């Protein structure tokens, strides 16, 4: 009789240990023979049109000016979740969140 280890069983056991960290949870899954894929280098959503890029740039400009994602969401009439997507995309585009980055 072959026994299989489920991800739930592995995570339950790993979470029962003191001070579980995301790294240790992933290591436990790998050690159990479960496939753990690496995250993408870039965000899942990136602007593909000039209008979308303009939204990302506007969110980045306001973020640099010191506004919180909630304040930006209010000004742009978008959800905080969408603003977080814009800011993640801006972080992946050289020069948007760090204007000096493209000069390096």
UniProtKB/TrEMBL annotation:
<protein>
    <submittedName>
        <fullName>Uncharacterized protein</fullName>
    </submittedName>
</protein>
